[in-house]
Design brief:
Elements (H helix, E strand, L loop, with lengths): L1 E5 L2 E3 L5 E8 L7 E7 L6 E6 L7 E2 L7 E6 L4 E6 L8 E8 L17 E5 L2
Parallel strand pairs: 2-10
Antiparallel strand pairs: 1-3, 3-8, 4-5, 4-9, 5-6, 7-8, 9-10
Length: 122
């Protein structure tokens, strides 16, 4: 199982970034997928999750209305479109998988990659 995140970078407040998560070594489609993030000195926290068919999405209140999670099972790729970025969105972003029907808990997910850094600053 390998998940590789990309697409991070430096953005200004109010700007946008699109993160990608490429999966290899396993069949991507049956798994619920999610994005998490971890800011310096803080615990890893849930951002958004999506069911294997692409529906049943759920977002943390801090990103609701600004971020959109999606997936392309044919390409084995998960996405996170981030709009209206805020400085508090600065963190290392990770994607992960779970066989659970529903979870926002870090401990239920695995396949963690190296993450991609998002920095929001003027």
């Amino acid at each position: 199982v390998q998940l590789v995140e990309s697409g991070g970078g430096l953005a200004q407040p109010g700007g946008s970034l699109r993160l990608s998560c490429a999966a290899s070594g396993f069949t991507f489609s049956p798994y619920r997928m999610a994005w998490f993030r971890q800011a310096p000195g803080k615990e890893r926290e849930f951002v958004a999750t999506i069911a294997w068919r692409g529906g049943n999405t759920f977002y943390d209140d801090s990103v609701k209305g600004r971020f959109t999670i999606s997936r392309d099972n044919a390409k084995n790729t998960l996405y996170l479109q981030m709009n209206s970025l805020k400085p508090e969105d600065t963190a290392l972003y990770y994607c992960a998988q779970t066989m659970a029907y529903w979870s926002t808990s870090v401990s239920d997910y695995d396949g963690w990659g190296q993450g991609t850094q998002v920095t929001v600053s003027s």
